[in-house]
Each structure stands twice: as structure tokens, then as C-alpha cells.
Amino acid sequence: MHDSTRSYRGRFAPSRRVRCTSASLVAAVGSYLEARWNRGRWLVRMEDLDRPREARGASEAILRMLEAYGFEWDGKVVFQSRPRRSLRSGAETPRA
């Protein structure tokens, strides 16, 4: 069980090296149900750091598969290779 004083965030972070496997779908179901059970958010983050081995069209295929099975993620899909402003601004702020 998680700390009920904090907002729960679950995530699904598939690799784009393959379109989608049954194991990926099982992982998505588990993380989705856990997030919803805890009244939290469910995020999708694409693992896209290994560009030479990525399958063409994998991101779109993965998202279509999730939608076809009725998954609804919260917020925008995040791509790991793209810097996020909130992380960068925190890293640039010195701590006392």
C-alpha cells in the first residue's frame, strides 16, 4: 500500500523496439489497475533512448493498442529523450 498522504502515480513505459507484446499488455493492465485502485494518475512514458533499434511506427501502434483496450492515460504522453521543463528548472536551482 502506498502513503495515502501523497498522490499516487502509476506509469507504463514501453520500449519502442517492439510494437507491443502480451507481456507489455500485462504490465500496462497491472500499472493501470494499481493507479486507479489508489485513485491516482496513470502516465505513459515512451522509452526512446535506443533510436537505432526502434521499430518504425511503434509509438503510434502502442498508443492505438492501449486505446483499443480502453486504457485512458492522464496528461500527455512523455518521451524519455525529450527534456521536461519542470525537471530542468529544478536541476538548475541551487539548494541551500
Secondary-structure-derived class: alpha/beta
The helix-strand sequence is EHEHEH
Q: Main beta sheet, described?
A: 3 strands, parallel
Distinct helical segment count: 3
Poorly predicted regions are 87-96
CA-CA gap between termini: 33 Å
As a percent range, the share of strand residues is 5-15%
The strand count comes to 3
In short:
This protein has helices at 22-37, 58-68, 85-92; strands spanning 9-12, 41-46, 78-79. The chain has 96 residues and is of the alpha/beta class. Strands 1-2-3 form a 3-stranded parallel β-sheet.
Keywords for this entry:
single chain; 96 residues; alpha/beta; three-stranded parallel β-sheet; 3 strands; 36% helix; 12% strand; globular; disordered C terminus
Molecular structure report:
The protein has helices spanning 22-37, 58-68, 85-92, and strands at residues 9-12, 41-46, 78-79. It has 3 helices and 3 strands; from the N terminus they run βαβαβα. It is globular, with a radius of gyration of 15 Å. It has a 3-stranded parallel beta sheet. Residues 87-96 have low confidence and may be disordered.
